[in-house]
Amino acid sequence: MTALVSIKQVYKSYVRGKQRVEVLHGLDLNVEKGEFLALMGPSGSGKSTLLNLIGGLDRPDRGEISVAGQRIDSLSSGQLAKWRARHVGFVFQFYNLLPVLTAERNVEVPLLLTKLSSRERKRNVQAALELVGLADRAKHKPSELSGGQQQRVAIARALVADPTLLVCDEPTGDLDRETSDSVLQLLELLNREQGKTIVMVTHDPRAAGHASRRLYVDKGSLADASLGAAA
Amino acid sequence: MKYLPLIWAGLWRKRVRTVLTMLSVIVAFVLFGVMHGVTAGIDQMVNQMSNSRLRIQSRVNITEALPLAHRARIESVPGVLGVGYYNFLGTYYQEPRNQVSTGAMDIGGLRTMFPEIELSQEAVDAMAQTRDGALIGHDLAEARGWKIGDRIPLKSSVWMRKDGAPDWTFEIVGVYGSARGKVPTNELWINYGYFDEERTFGNGTVTLYFVRINEPARSGEIAEQIDGLFANSANETQTMNERDWLRGRVAQIGNMAFFVNAIIGAVMFTLLFLTGNTMMQSVRERIPELAVLKTYGFSSGAIVSLVLGEAFLLCGAAAGIGLGIARLASPSIFRAIGAGGLALPWNVIATGLGVAAVVALISAVPPAWRAQRISIVDALAGR
Lengths: 231, 383
Known about the structure:
The structure holds 2 protein chains of 2 kinds.
Chain A: E1 3-16, E2 19-32, E3 36-40, H1 47-54, E4 62-67, E5 70-71, H2 77-87, E6 88-91, H3 103-108, H4 118-131, H5 147-159, E7 165-169, H6 177-193, E8 197-201, H7 205-208, E9 213-218, E10 221-224, H8 225-230
Parallel strand pairs in A: 3-8, 3-9, 6-7, 7-8
Antiparallel strand pairs in A: 1-2, 1-4, 4-5, 9-10
Chain B: H1 4-11, H2 15-48, E1 53-58, E2 66-67, H3 70-75, E3 80-92, E4 99-105, H4 110-113, E5 117-118, H5 121-129, E6 133-137, H6 138-144, E7 151-156, E8 167-178, E9 187-191, H7 192-198, E10 205-206, E11 208-213, H8 219-229, E12 237-241, H9 242-253, H10 256-285, H11 287-295, H12 300-336, H13 346-372, H14 376-380
Parallel strand pairs in B: 4-9, 6-8
Antiparallel strand pairs in B: 1-11, 1-12, 2-10, 3-4, 3-7, 3-11, 5-8, 6-9, 7-8
């Protein structure tokens, strides 16, 4: 396998109030193409910061981040926005669907930035909703769907533009155990059958158990999850 | 166009707030349309008034009568093509509040003096054969439901008949019209000869003369010549062309354009706060949603476009409805100011839509600026 995501000596700090908090210090990480990586760790350990850097939502203070051979740490905000539109699908803990749009309109959002025609967009949206098993709920608004269904719509939205990388931040954090399992099985299926590279942040060891590799983030550094669990 | 569902959905996120804001914008632009429509209507009326026809009244005031004998002397002035005359009657129908604008005139010369009047030769002939006949304007006929053959009993608070009664009954023999408000069509016209014979005083006098001239450019010079004929007499005249006369009347009301602009300016200024507040609230509530859009690659420019689009849709649609209502209401308003047949000019509607665009732009700039500066990480973390 080849490294899809390559992170070298990345440093990241935030200013909170009058204090500068160093979150990541000299972190190195490779994510292979087709890998399903789980990042675990306590709150404030830096795992979400790392995920934001991988997804191009934020930029490091120092260090290099390459995705599919392209350096993204030096891109401008506008270039980064275009890069995200082409390469990354996001799944959030609280789904973050637009409440005023139907499921199909929510899924269509990333496609609005492409040059696809209305008919092509509709076809892709239909395919994505079928993939997550919600084709019959296309016309429903998020408030008319259960939590698990909303997260499936969010996954369909993340997939619809066929991104290089799927970035999931606590995708089961707001779901009950049974629904979590079905969402995780869906992610596993996408990884196995569609070859999607997935990086997932989770607190839940059961969720991490669905990943092909688990890493533990603590105080801005990485360790194997088994070591983290033992610590 | 592909962003329209997003813009539309954002607009209706809080239905009640959007509807109330739209109603405010609609009311403001109805006011804009009506007030600017009235000034534009008056301008149209002034421009449509003839400058090849002079209007003569007593130099003292409009109620002071002029001798009918002036006519022959006016006709002798070089450049004068014809002279008509007119006498006001203050009349009402059934009750004093039902005023009917009535004028006694030389009906035979009416079409020559006022070629813009639409009147059939049959109606003119009928007036010649019916001493107590009357012609009524389209608007008056419509407003009162009067028709040819009706006998209309009117009372005058000024003019008594020889038998001492204030009652004047006329038979309607024709209806006159006028293209696009050139002549008010809310009056009732009777034969001067009949009126003059029947009244108890003021016989052989008129309130106004109308004079057709051959060269509009010489209207001032001819007016001076006419007034010169009667200078230092007991019945001095004041002559001016119709357009200048109406312009003078309008000027007496005051600077209409200034009043209208001041009122509309205040309304629009207040509206800015309302729409600005609505847009600000709307964006503030959607910071996480806008952050999600940015996450998926919407650039800052695209986010600004969405906010601007929402403001333009809100203000544009509401202003369009408001101006539409003003246009529908304008014929009644113009009729009320004596300019029946006119409609709200398209340039007022275009200006209104332009003002709506400016209101939308100004009210959307602060929230758009805020929206494009959203930090995705902070917004998604709820900071």
